[in-house]
């Protein structure tokens, strides 16, 4: 695979990566028309289209050789692999999906449909906006509080700031929020990789906050091999 792909090691039997700005996909990746909700789709046949997957933000498959992906440009991608049941998932977790516990809902569907156990899962939390860059309003902080997140781990108030972009104000750590969701679901901490790349500051990745909503998208893909 190309050097323009950020590749992840989840063990034998699976391939997973995130695309950098100029990457060319090495093979087709099934993607949905994401809407920042928490619906989970089962990919049960090759060739499913974005039109087939309207309104879904998480995708699960047990089909070997069929890649599935989550599209992001600051939102958090979560890739999951069950080496026991041979199932993979790709999750698009923006702040709204994170508040809706989309990662946990995906794990629940994996358990219901395939008998997956959280303790067997391996996870990657890929590139997304970092806590220093994710400045939010009080209403967003309130959503996380109401949803039961450990605010001492994911939230900080940085005062008035110095006038530079993203300084001061409220900040949320979306990667840690999703890490907490995975831990609460029962995935061992040792099985969770947090890549820690801030897409707002790393210009090799697309960032909607830096470039505008019409920018390109990072494809975060996973497939059984």
Q: What are the main properties of this structure?
A:
5-stranded mixed sheet, CNF1/YfiH-like putative cysteine hydrolases, globular, 225 residues, alpha+beta
- Average pLDDT, rounded to a whole number, is 96
Low-pLDDT segments, ≥5 res: none
CATH homology-level superfamily = CNF1/YfiH-like putative cysteine hydrolases
Which bin fits the share of residues in helices?
Answer: 10-25%
Task: Please tell me the CATH architecture by its name.
Answer: 4-Layer Sandwich
Q: Please give the number of β-strands.
A: 14
Radius of gyration: 17 Å
CATH class: Alpha Beta
Biggest sheet: strand arrangement: 4-5-8-7-9-13
CATH topology assignment: CNF1/YfiH-like putative cysteine hydrolases
The total of helices stands at: 6
Please report which band the strand proportion falls in: under 5%, 5-15%, 15-25%, 25-35%, 35-45% or over 45%: 25-35%
What does this molecule look like?
- It is built from 6 helices and 14 strands.
- The chain is of the alpha+beta class.
- The protein has a single domain (5-132, 186-224), classed as CNF1/YfiH-like putative cysteine hydrolases (4-Layer Sandwich).
- Strands 4-5-8-7-9-13 form a 6-stranded mixed beta sheet.
- The radius of gyration is 17 Å and the shape is globular.
């Amino acid at each position: 695979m190309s050097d323009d792909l950020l590749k992840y090691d989840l063990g034998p039997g699976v391939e997973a990566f995130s695309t950098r700005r100029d990457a060319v996909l090495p093979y087709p990746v099934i993607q949905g028309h994401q809407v920042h909700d928490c619906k989970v789709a089962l990919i049960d046949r090759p060739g499913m289209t974005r039109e087939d997957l309207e309104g879904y933000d998480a995708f699960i498959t047990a089909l070997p050789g069929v890649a599935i992906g989550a599209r992001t440009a600051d939102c958090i991608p979560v890739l999951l692999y069950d080496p026991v049941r041979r199932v993979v998932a790709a999750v698009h977790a923006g702040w709204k999906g994170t508040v809706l516990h989309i990662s946990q809902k995906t794990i629940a569907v994996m358990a219901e449909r395939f008998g997956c156990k959280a303790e067997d899962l391996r996870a990657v939390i890929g590139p997304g906006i970092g806590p220093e860059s994710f400045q939010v309003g009080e209403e967003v902080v309130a959503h996380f509080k109401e949803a039961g997140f450990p605010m001492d781990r994911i939230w900080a108030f940085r005062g008035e700031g110095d006038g530079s972009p993203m300084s001061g104000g409220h900040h949320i750590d979306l990667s840690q929020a999703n890490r907490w969701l995975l831990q609460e679901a029962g995935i061992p901490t040792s099985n969770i990789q947090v890549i820690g790349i801030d897409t707002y500051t790393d210009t090799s990745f697309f960032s909607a906050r830096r470039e505008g909503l019409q920018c390109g998208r990072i494809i975060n893909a996973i497939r059984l091999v």
